[in-house]
Each structure stands twice: as C-alpha cells, then as structure tokens.
Amino acid sequence: MYAQMIQSTGKGVKSLDEMDPTERAFQERIDAGGKIEPKDWMPAGYRKNLIRQIGQHAHSEIIGQLPEGNWITRAPTLERKAILLAKVQDEAGHGLYLYCAAETLGITRDEMFEALNEGRMKYSSIFNYPTLTWADMGAVGWLVDGAAIMNQVPLQRTSYGPYARAMVRICKEESFHQRQGFDIMMKMCAGSEAQKRMAQDALNRFWYPSLMMFGPSDAESVHSAQSMAWKIKMNTNDELRQKFVDQTVPQAEYLGLTVPDETIKWNDEKGGYDFAEPDWTEFYDVLAGNGPCNHDRLETRKQAWDDGAWVREGMLAHAAKKRTAKVAAE
Amino acid sequence: MNTPEKAAPKRTGEWPLFEVFIRGQHGLSHRHVGSLHAPDAEMAIKNARDVYTRRNEGVSIWVVEAEAIHASAPGEKEALYDPSNDKVYRHPTFFDVPEEVGHM
Amino acid sequence: MDNASLFQCLLRFGDNTLVLGHRISEWCGKAPALEEDIALANTALDLIGQTQMWLGYAAEVEGADRSADDLAMLRDVWDFRNILMVERPNIDFGHTIMRQFLFDAYHHAQLTALSRSSDPRIAEIAAKSVKEATYHLDRSAETVIALGDGTDVSHAKMQNALDLLWPYAGEMFESDDVDAQMAASGIAPDPATLRDAWDLRVRDTLSLATLNIPEDNFAHKGGRTGARHTEHLGHMLTQMQWLQRAYPGAVW
C-alpha cells in the first residue's frame, strides 16, 4: 500500500482491563465507531504510528508524481496530456491534504519533507519502478491506483478524524484515476501489434510490484493487530491483496492480456483466485533503497526542494515586509 | 478542524498554515474544506483557489491563519454539547412523519 | 481576408498556448512548494485547453483533414508560429514565473480585444480564455512582486530573469501582412495596439517588484513568422511528438 511496514510500539494489543481509565475511554470510543480529533487525548503510540503512516502515505503521493510526470511531456495527444497532468496534479493535492492531516498531530510539513529527503521516512515501494513506455501510464492507473483504492476506501472510516476526512476527499477525486489508466490499456489493446506488445510488457513489469504494494502477509503481526485495534488499519494485507487479484484478473482477460503468473487459477472453495506470491526478497531490496529508481526519485525530490529554497524564502521575506509596512501605516 | 493539538514548533523559513473556508454557489455558509501553506493571506487565498476550488467561478474564500483559531478544549466538551443533546426535538428524526405524507 | 491568413493567425494563438503549456507542464512534481506545483499545473491545463480550441479551429479553417492533434504533433519547427519567448527553457522558477508574467500581461490584453472579434468563434474562445488569463496574470504578477521584493537572492534572480527575457518581449508587438489583414477585417487586433496596456501593467508590477527594466529595447524575432526559431523548440518537439512520430497512425 502507500503505507507499508508501519511498525507500531510492538507491545501487542492491551485488553480493556489492562488499560487505565483514560486509555480505556479512548479505546471504547474507537470500538463504538467514534472519531478521535486533534485535541483529544490519545496514547503516544497512536500518535506516533499515525504520523508515520499518514506521512508515508503523503510522501508516496508526492514521489508518486514522478513516474507519471515522466510521461507528461511525451503524452501522445493533447487530451491525454491534459488528463495525465490533471491526474498527477491530483496526487500533489492528495499529498497536500495528507500532510495537513499529519500536521494536526504536532509535526510540520517541512519536518516531514526533511525526513523524507534524509531517508528517515519512507514511501511506497511501487514508485521505485521505472515507467518505460506509454503503456506504463495505463498500467500505473489501472494496477497501482487500483491497488491503492483497495486500501483508501476503507480508510475513509479510520478512527482519526482529519485522516478520515482527507481520505473522503481523496477517494472522491480519485474515482477517475483508475478508469483513465484502464482506458489507456483498452486503446492499446485494440491498437497495433506494437501497442499490444507494449501493453503486455507493462502488465508483466507492474503485476508483481503491484501485489507487493500490500506488503507481506501480516496475519501474525502484532503491529498490524494494534493498528487494527486502533482502526488506523482496516484490513489485513492478505485480504486486500486477494480482493485486488480477484478484481484485476477478469479485467486483464477482458483486455486480452496475460497475467504473468502461470499458477493463477480460480478456487471455487474460497471464492477467489489462487495466485503466486511476489518475490519478497526483491520487495525488501527496494525498501532498503536498492530498487531500480530509489536513488533517482529521491534525488529529484531533494533537488526540487533545494532549488525551491530561495523561492520559499523570498516569498516569506516579502510577506514580512508587507506586514511591517502595514503596521507602520496604522 | 485541523487545528494542531499543540502548536507545532514554528520553524524559520516555513510558510504558515492556513485553514480554508469556502462558500459554494448555493448560498450556504462558509464551510471548512481543509488547510494549506502560504507565505501570507493574499497568497493563501490564491492557493486556496488553485487547491480547493480548481478555480470555480462565484465562490467566496476565507482563509485564517491556523494559529489564530480558538478551539474548544476537550474537557469542556460535555458542558458545551450535552445540553443540546437533550433537546432531541432539534433533530428531524425525532418526529415521525406518516408514510402517506412522503419525503420531508 | 483569405483563409490562409486566418489559419496563420490561429496558429499563432494556438502555438503560443501549446508551447508555453508544455513548458509549464515540465514543472510537474518539481515546484518549490506543493501549492505552487498545483497552481502551475492549473495554468498548464488552462493553456492546453485553449490550445485544443485554437488549433481545433485552425484545422477546420485549413480544411486539409488535419486535427488539432495533427497540428500539434506532426508539424516540424519551421511550421510553428509561437513567439520565441514561450519556447525558452524554464531554467529556474524565477525565469519561469517572469516569462509567465510577461506573457500573461500580453495574453490578457490580446484576449480582451479578441473577445470582441468579428469572427464569432474567435470571440467565443477568447471570452472563455480571458477569464483564465485574468487569474494567471493576477497570480504571476503577485509572485513576481513577492520574489523581486523578497530577499537579496530572490531579487537578484528575478532581475537576472528579466534581463534575459526582456529582448524576447518585443516580438509580441510585431506586425506583418497577416496582422494587417486581421485588423482590417476586425478579426484580431494589430499587436502593436496592445503595447500601451502591456507597458502600463508591466511597468507598474516591475516597479512594485523593485526591478529595473532594461534600457535596451532590442527584440529577437522570427518565432511568430516561423522564419527562425531558437534551438530549444526542436528539442521540445523531439519529446512532445515522439510517440506520434514513432508509431504513425496509432490511436492512443
């Protein structure tokens, strides 16, 4: 997902009886479906986890601009260019909403940017893969946004008010993202031989990285159990991955494309597909900084941040001068 | 409302946080839509147009520096809200509307 | 007034917005602040939208069975009719926003006049576009003022941008036979007539920005006639047109 491998305090989930009255009231409110708001009391671990999770989600939106931004200047038609630009712009907006949600927890956006630039905060593994052909714009919209939606829709009900509200806005705006990706794939698959090959190649390269987005199985994880008790994680990784595969395989069939997994098979008993696990060694390599694009993505962000410093400072200095002049005039 | 739980450490060089309120075309009150950063209020209004309205015509935008917002403390919650919670007749579902009357 | 002249005139409108929109879109994901990133994308989207309308109409006027996309993606450098300034590289945010401001001030005056065009299609496109240009100008002017007046560093960068771009401003007000025909038939204003409004706005803003207008009024030209573009346009086209050139006839 956009937030992967979030580590909680790691102590396991306390029962209500083990909690002091304040924490108990907090947990009961969450259990009853209530929202926690910025000024409410919250356990330190809840706050810390949320900052990590929302921050990582926000960073993923911002870094996520780059692989698609890579094709804006090469979009094949004026309309495609406009649609892609609008989509990538939305991602900037979604990053912005999420940073603001995290800021209610007592961290600033610039602090989060610095943590990202210095490698202290992560972003989703998926954005460390290159976009090599126009078909990748289709695959990213169809698969990556498709996978992200699996997680974002339930997160609209998350326990932290500002996060839930950001997700509501994001889900509303994202509704066209997956469709535009699928639409690109449909055009390619109905096109020339070269276009069909391009589409198949994009699916081949993005299938397993998309499955990795959900993270490794967390059925046994104490971190996930705590996050689920706090309702900042709504489903297990395996549930979401299964749902994604079940949704995507028929779509690939419709396109006339082959999912690059020979073992994939409908399983009547479980009412879903059996499918092969991605290569988790590759996943950990990407997380450790060894993905195909880790270095370039982060360098691009750092450069943008450093190059923009004089602009941010200049505008702030002008604002201060205006304030002084206004006071002097009064 | 995205008011910080505790004032975030104000760092030099960071654009302040603004809360954005927008009144849409239907004449309803200004509604909180989110937050953003800007060097000052004038730019905050422009940024709000770009971020939150995608520049729809005919909307009114308010921006308020987040620091300037006073919010009720959680401890006062019961005192502020409990009295009106008793007045169930203020809520439309309190009244049974006969089915033949239709939607109301 | 002949169709060939009207076609040229429409290419001048549409190529300006096409090329500048493309340049602005290069910023996506790399702007100095998230809010600026989103605002730049809005400007680029407006300009691409205007391009679709101008080149769409140009294609109809030409009557050669070409679409707006064909005009954008399949013409070579010498057939482009944009002014040289908009094809200049972004360099940095200062150059980008200064170029935007100098163009917006012109674009706003031009579209205002075009909204009274004797050609109803042009009047209609201009009436829609001028609303967008009004906001673009508002925003770029305020940003130029802030950065010119900001810190010593930002002031120096903005002065540098102005010095470099100033020789590219004069081309906006050049006239030729095409312009004379358009003016005579009330289709489009003679560009020279837009200069006073532009001067007023630009001098006012640059003075608030504490920037010095260069004294030399030399003007590079050759873009709007297609006689001599800069080297930069060709490089832009290698990206913009690549897919259409590499896979002729493919539907995307």
Automatic annotation (TrEMBL), chain A:
Top-level enzyme category: oxidoreductase
EC number: 1.14.13.149
CC per GO annotation: cytosol
Signal peptide (residue range): none
Keywords carried by this UniProt record: Oxidoreductase
Pfam families per UniProt: PaaA_PaaC (PF05138)
Source organism superkingdom: Bacteria
GO molecular function, one term: phenylacetyl-CoA 1,2-epoxidase activity
Swiss-Prot/TrEMBL GO biological process terms: phenylacetate catabolic process
NCBIfam families on file: PA_CoA_Oxy1
Name the record gives this protein: Ring-1,2-phenylacetyl-CoA epoxidase subunit PaaA
Originating species: Sulfitobacter undariae
UniProtKB/TrEMBL annotation, chain B:
InterPro entries: PaaB (IPR009359), PaaB_sf (IPR038693)
Pfam families: PaaB
Protein name, as recorded: Ring-1,2-phenylacetyl-CoA epoxidase subunit PaaB
Automatic annotation (TrEMBL), chain C:
Protein name per the record: Ring-1,2-phenylacetyl-CoA epoxidase subunit PaaC
Alphabetized UniProt keyword annotations: Oxidoreductase
Matching SUPFAM superfamilies: Ferritin-like
Pfam families attached to this UniProt entry: PaaA_PaaC (PF05138)
Cited NCBIfam families: PA_CoA_Oxy3
Gene Ontology MF annotations: phenylacetyl-CoA 1,2-epoxidase activity
Gene3D superfamilies assigned: 1.20.1260.10
Cited InterPro entries: Aromatic_CoA_ox/epox, Ferritin-like, Ferritin-like_SF, PaaA_PaaC, PaaC
Record GO biological process: phenylacetate catabolic process
EC number: 1.14.13.149
Any Gene Ontology CC annotation: cytosol
